[in-house]
Amino acid sequence: MYINGEWVQALSGETREIINPYNQEVVATAAEGNEKDAQAAIQAARTAFDEGDWRTLPANERGELVYQIGTLIRRDLEELAELETWDTGKTVEESRADMSDIANVFLYFGGLADKDGGEVIESPIPNSESKVVREPVGVCGQITPWNYPLLQAAWKIAPALAAGNTIIMKPSEITPLTTVKVFELIEEAGVPKGVANLVLGPGKSAGAELSTNTDVDLISFTGGIETGKSIMQSASHNVKKIALELGGKNPNVVFADADFETAVDQALNAVFFHAGQVCSAGARLLVEESIHDQFVEALVERAKRIKLGNGFDKDTQSGPLISAEHRAKVEKYVEIGKEEGATLAVGGQRPEAAELQNGFFYLPTIFTNCTSDMRIVQEEVFGPVLTVETFTSKEEAVQFANDTIYGLAGAVWTQDLDKAEFVASRLRLGTVWINDFHPYFAQAPWGGYKQSGIGRELGREGMDEYTEVKHIYRNKQPEPVQWFK
Ligand code: NAD
For 123, which of 287, 304, 398, 484 is 20 to 30 Å away at the CA? Predict the structure, then answer.
């Protein structure tokens, strides 16, 4: 762990073995912190914020340091990509793409650091002037999940530092490797001690301390909806600012006039990329009734060909699930789907290949004859499981797609741009893709409507989350008001 500029073990001396989900081999041993370690990190961040000069450093200088972290990530991209694949089992090609996006996040927020110089506003009061400025929130607790370990961390670390906050990052206890490495780069870049702190350990101790401790001003969390709710509750102790990036059950709406081959290809990518362990996975396919049969036939045929394997092998298209526990959750949902009467079109079991038996693999799975009242359609499975429903009009497509507690992302496929606009403007989602699935980048905001979260990451909005807005009013000719004569 990295606390107050020092690399330390857990105060208790406890450690945790980090497992490669491809073969269950131990790839590293990490410190296993708890609330005591989190308290030490919070204290360091508090002191650095209150007494250090990080928040008053000229914004361009802070920005340069954040930008420098991005260039160091580019320098060490291959090492970081390999660590991410050891930790998550995803293909190393995917990990490289993640690392490149992560470097861009630091470059973007580094560049943004000095772009908001505040705003002078027209005061309605004579002989006065008003300006509105943004200032850092203070000490920020940041908690991330295991599916995109470093990507989710980057979305939080880069804007928080660029805006002048001090931070305590706690990555998922099962995938800490790349976050540890990036803290080495944060140190190398010269970020002052106490400004950026890293605590490792379980959510219920190290994580919970960040959301309950009253010395923390803001808690930013990415993870499951139930954890998000409990963090909201504990953040209420001192009315912390909260930013939540929770789950999704993301609709992928395909009209009959869409480019068939592209829509099939991208529907597979939407749901089976990273074994479906993607918050914005297109796990809920809504296909126009007239093309349903041929669309499903093409999907099933291609889903059968997806090559599962070691993320380091060139021909592997998808890695394993993250853990035995998570695979058991996916299996439970497949049973629920069967019990609810959905038709299992392909998959629905573990692969039989001998070389995959030590990993947490699960076959790409497609359910047809699904309806929006089914749990398999409503709840986030977070695995390689696609549900297929049909619709007969654009109004019905919108109605079905919005019929969930989530509102993270989704797509619409059609060659009719009026129809695309009709659907896009009515979907209650933080991101809508037209004739594409998955693109995101540092310049555009990311986040959810409804129970998919609160606030936004990335883009200017992602930086604004880490600022307080202050109005400074100056009376240029003070004189008695004579209210109380
Ligand atoms: P999780 O909620 O179990 O854990 C996420 C993090 O929270 C981990 O670091 C964990 O240690 C910590 N945690 C657990 N209990 C805690 C508590 N009581 N207090 C404080 N911290 C606690 O989620 P997960 O299984 O790691 O990740 C999968 C979930 O993340 C999915 O639901 C997925 O949709 C979501 N996710 C969302 C986005 C997004 O951008 N919206 C991105 C990635 C993942």
Answer: 484
